[in-house]
Amino acid sequence: MNPEEKWIVDQVLEDFKDETVKFVGKCFEDDEYPQERIIDFNESLDEM
Questions:
Q1: What residues contact residue 32 under an 8 Å CB cut-off, 6+ apart?
Q2: 37 near 26, Cβ under 8 Å?
Q3: What is the Cα–Cα distance from 46 to 38, expressed in whole angstroms?
Q4: What is the pLDDT along the chain (48 residues), one digit of tens a residue?
Q5: DSSP of 1-48, one letter per residue?
Q6: Is the whole model's pTM more than 0.85, yes or no?
């Protein structure tokens, strides 16, 4: 992988990580029992 490609991959991963953090953060805000929501989310990812 050349440096330019690596930079693009890093950017995409950063964006994805930010979105995931926002999504999980939103679950915490919206829910009185966020732990269960996160477990459900992880299970739904496993099923894909």
A1: none
A2: no
A3: 12
A4: 788 888 888 888 888 887 877 777 776 666 565 566 666 777 777 776
A5: --HHHHHHHHHHHHHHHHHHHHHHHHHHHH-S-HHHHHHHHHHHHHH-
A6: no
∠ Cα 10 13 23 (to 5°): 155
Whole-number Å distance between alpha carbons of 2 and 9: 11
Largest CA distance in the chain: 46
Provide CB contacts within 8 A for 37, sequence distance 6+.
Answer: 27, 30, 31
